[in-house]
Specification:
Number of strands: 18
CATH topology of the largest domain: Diaminopimelate Epimerase, Chain A, domain 1
Structural class: alpha+beta
Helix content: 10-25%
Number of helices: 6
Order of helices and strands: EEHEEEHEEEEHEEHHEEEHEEEE
Length: 291
Amino acid sequence: MTTHPFYIVDVFAVEKYAGNQLAVVMDAADISDETMQRIAQEMNYAETTFVLSNQIRDGGYDVRIFTPAVEVPFAGHPTLGTAYIIREKIIGQAVETVILNFKVGQIRVTFADDGVIWMRQNPPTFGKKYDRTATAEVLGIGVDDIDDRFPVQEVSTGLPFIIVPIKTLDAMKQARIDVRKLRTFIEGGEAMTIAAFCPQTYHDENDINVRVFADLFNIPEDPATGSANGCLSGYLVKYRYFDRDSIAIRAEQGYEIKRRSLLLHRSANRGDDIEINIGGRVIPIASGELF
């Protein structure tokens, strides 16, 4: 009987049993698409990744990502967590860089001496803008809770999100998705997920508070979302939210669902493109075998 080792890690975690959980399944080339989806449902984390082989192809390792509902071409916390496991379990030494081959292309992950792991995301693309009133109705907040100095807009670095600028932490706490209204709201765009943020935080050392709602992926709220924060980082730079063309900030997420997370942004306008780097820590939790 063929078995597949798997590992569980907490990504963007400030401590063990925080951050965003990830299952990483190894030697997965012989697992069918249908079985990968069923394994992701069994794990029931926001995402499960499958490392297809221990062998390098085109300089990187082939990886697929599944939510409990669908396969996705890219996601942030799976990138960091999978790179960590590849470095620890396949490479077996403290290399500085690991490259992952996803459906969106190659993503480079860098390991810093202070324990933070960084990923360079694709330059952002900016899509459809959304009506504030309709946005407020989907989130169950007042239209005046949305900061009208900045647009509600779809942004993608490989996986699109609708970025919503909210004024206060109180409004962030009140936000609840109306899934029926959400299905109508997203028509005509590419994004299925909302990433809301505000400049008020639970902790003074952090710069923004973030919540990500992915009900249509069977994830009512995600505790730490590297892909969404990458899109948000590009948005913050493009619209000079902090009145500058580059940012080095701390984003807190997951507090409303008791999974405290910290995501670091290092992004800048380089003229033709916005360079996006998102970082955080990975903590190993468990290992096992799939039969």
